[in-house]
Amino acid sequence: MRISELTEAGAVEEHPDGSYDVALVLVHGMGAAYRSQILLEWAEPLLARMDWMARDRIYGEGDHGVELDQSNLAGDEPVITATVRFPKRRPPGTPENAPTITVERKIAIVEARWSEAFVPLGRAQIFRWAAPFMWRAFLRMLRLFWSTMFLVPWYTLVEHTRTERKYLVFPHPITFVLDLVRAVLGFALYVPIAVFILLLATVLTPILPLISPLLLIPWFKDLAAGVIDSLAESIGDVTAWKETPVRASAMRLIVRDAVSRAKSLVGDGDVHVFAHSQGAAVSTFALFEEMEPSDFNVRHLTTVGAAVTLLGRDQWRGRTDPYTPVQNWLARRTFDPDHPVSWSNHWAIWDPFSAGPIADDSRKARQRWRASYFPRLATDACGPEEHAVHNTSQPFLDHSMYFQNTLQVVEPTIRNLLGPDFPAPPPEVAYLENRLNVINKKSLGVNMVAAVVIAALLPGIAAASAFFASVITTVAGWFSWVVGLFNGGAAAPDAAASVGFLHEQGQLTGWGWLIVSGLLAALLVWLNQTLAGYTERTLIWDRCPLPVGAWLVVSSIPRFLYVAAAAVVVWAFLLQQLSPDAAGAVWTGVIVLAAAIFLFLEPRFAPVPVVVDARTDAADVQAVRANAATPMTLHATRGSDAYKKHLKDRQKTLDPRGPWAKSWAYLFHGWGRKAAPVVGGAPRQA
């Protein structure tokens, strides 16, 4: 049945309220949000991936997929509705030839746009408050980076000493050396980063309160007003939430109204709330302190990049009200034990705003963070289901890119929406998909570092500097020749003089070095992003991805090229700067080569976080520990019967289109190869 039917007049008649099976309420983060902005940002990737998953033929044939019924983006209450049909999950032991049962779910997606629910604060009030808040945010950022860069390697080293050999890639002595190198390098990288962040905070502390008075100076206002207004727009929302309870209440009212509207759309169906950044703080407060979620059929809360522990709750002057979001959530679960609210929290490992898991105090947050990497160490610190994810492998960008994380964010949200009837891959296959996805994202980060190193040092090598200087003069000559064609009888411009500030005596000047480095970095970073996007598509969008071994080899080629090029550049630069003797040159090369080998292997063997189930009591903690007693490994899962069967099932559905797709399928999946001829009733042996 369709959600909307065409009337005799040809218009679309919406389904009446109460006819949807599930409604999703999207809540945006800090900063201005235009009408339908958060709706489009998340509805498009959710519905696109939902359609792809529903049409997956390995789970059953049929008329499956997503059908958009309504996309009202311009009205006072924007809404997107759709019908999704998918093959019902088959219980274990179901015969392969059993008929496919099709499930239909009607979905409505609405937004809670709170950014215009209150009068903005003045710049002076915003920036006076921002200075002390900045220190809190920066210190949380330092704790996150310390955890990611040093504590993960350190805990990995300790854990590997207690791990059975069958779960390790290398013997214990080699594993110990690799883990120790990772920990030392992590510490060495953390120290300058921490120093830079502390210096930046120190510089900004006296500047922030002065920004508003400085705008009274005409030339400064003309120069910086746009940037400062954009900054104030974002920080102002946070200030309003923390410092002005009336405005904070107005934000929560928008969320409550959206949830109430979603309840009217589903009737007895389910309501899911999905909140990002500051919207997560607004939503958790509204749901667990001001509402009874069961009264509105709220069954699931998903938070991404949640600033719940960073922002806390609003503060009345002279009052210190404690805020315990986890305890509030647990209390609401017990209010209606038959329909407890489940909670999934996604945090990127480089996201400085979420800065890790959600907990009621910093000690429990650290314990829950550690359990995301080592579930065997789970403590009695309760909290929601934790998803430590890899978005971009780049600090600051991670916070705004959750909607692009198809495998670790979008897919789990879809499975929550569509319920237990929606089919899922075997655990071994899910583990492999996640592990390969993390390897790809880590490779993106390694290549990014290599690109910056190449771009920074290559123009400083004499031979490369001379080459770039000649390229500059050649290109300038081309421009001069083109200009000369239109100059008529006038003399052509002097090409060399026009770019003289970039080169001198056949070498790049300081300005030339800087500009060439910038152009090189832009080119290498763009190429890295393009290659990483391609390898990601082959992993999660191809109906039949490459076998794991082949994918590991193919995806490592760009990483090898980037790391090898960076190693050669670093070695050549050091030889030029240090001028060592022959033995020194060899030892320098050995050290650079060892570092390059380690960086090349790091994405493949680095520790990977896992999804940790929600912990609401001691029994949940014991379940987490029990599941971690037999950890999955890349080697074991790629050789498992479940993965081999899954791959064969996908290979049976291969239908490549075009020469490239056919050659790819032939090479890696054996598609189109003729069967061996039969001689004397038996197949000929190869």
Automatic annotation (TrEMBL):
It comes from the Bacteria. InterPro entries: AB_hydrolase_fold. The chain crosses the membrane at residues 137-157, 187-211, 444-472, 478-501, 508-528, 548-575, 582-601. The keyword Transmembrane helix applies. Keywords: Membrane, Transmembrane, Transmembrane helix. The keyword Nucleotidyltransferase does not apply. Coiled coil: none annotated. This is Alpha/beta hydrolase. It comes from Agromyces salentinus. The lineage of its organism: Bacteria, Bacillati, Actinomycetota, Actinomycetes, Micrococcales.
